[in-house]
């Protein structure tokens, strides 16, 4: 397979809140892509039978920063979308290695642009959180807790449309995996839609990952697999600002990832929100590398 590596698209504050800067690199998440490259991720992909035939580093230039954070997230998303659509046109598989969950919007926009208006695209969302808040449900106003709601057309159309995503994603084409921490109002909103929440852990209530993913794959043409590293137990992402305890280990998570790739319909991949800095950075980086490595291994079969 031919991979297009989208590296270091981090131009926002670590928290992704409504007040942090955009247009400048800030926070540990912005260093993940360079850390992956320094650890030899490209050579690892080659060893797995893949080839990195394209790379891009979408960054919003200072002169394009408006100061309106939502608008600027849309503008940055448009740059990510351009990379994704270009990769698809070149016959490459887009892999976002680095950045945050806010880049979901640009990734979905690029898939729409590259695959065509009639393409039925599904989202498989591995995360400890739903990121399905809107300004009306959020307790914090944190924009990093809203990207799935944005692509579903529930809030911030300026962000979605600015990224070039013309049609919202129908909620029956969203499978959330794990999401063990939802705000009460967010949980109510999810329950009012056709979103499916699937489980990696046998003790958690709800449908299993394989059941939910196979059902989704039967109804769509393509899948986008988005993995926030905080889906893992907190011990494996100790310095993640929204790390959650009682999560799956790496083996259970990889098994779920393999189920998604077994559909044969994955068109793009992201592994986001890894902070390689600080005393616990090596643990977080190792987990992020493992998620990338195992994903590409499953994709290359």
Offer a quick outline of the entry.
By secondary structure, the protein is of the alpha/beta class. It has ten helices and eight strands.
Structure description:
By secondary structure, this protein is an alpha/beta fold. It has a single domain, classed as Ureohydrolase domain (Arginase, Chain A, 3-Layer(aba) Sandwich), CATH 3.40.800.10. The protein is 37% helix and 17% strand. It has 10 helices and 8 strands. Strands 2-1-3-8-7-4-5-6 form an 8-stranded parallel beta sheet, sandwiched between helices. β5, α7 and β6 form a beta-alpha-beta unit. The longest helix has 21 residues. The radius of gyration is 17 Å and the shape is globular.
Keywords, please?
about 300 residues, 10 helices, alpha/beta, Arginase, Chain A, about 35% helix, eight-stranded parallel β-sheet
In terms of topology, how is this protein built?
Blueprint lengths: L1 E6 L24 H7 L2 H7 L3 E6 L12 H21 L3 E5 L6 H12 L5 E9 L17 H5 L5 H7 L10 E8 L2 H8 L4 E3 L10 H11 L2 E7 L21 H12 L4 E7 L8 H20 L1
Parallel strand pairs: 1-2, 1-3, 3-8, 4-5, 4-7, 5-6, 7-8
Helix pairs in contact: 3-4, 3-6, 9-10
Give the N-to-C terminal Cα separation.
9 Å
Helix fraction, binned, reads: 25-40%
Please tell me how large the radius of gyration is.
17 Å
What's the CATH topology label? Arginase, Chain A
Specify the CATH architecture.
3-Layer(aba) Sandwich
Quick check: average pLDDT?
A: 93
Order of helices and strands: EHHEHEHEHHEHEHEHEH
State which percent range the strand residues make up: 15-25%
Strand tally is: 8
Number of domains: 1
| Anisotropy-based shape | globular
Q: Any low-confidence stretches, pLDDT <50, length ≥5?
A: 11-26
The structural class is: alpha/beta
Order of strands, main sheet, comes to: 2-1-3-8-7-4-5-6
CATH class: Alpha Beta
Tell me the major beta sheet.
8 strands, parallel
* Separate helix tally: 10
Provide the CATH superfamily: Ureohydrolase domain
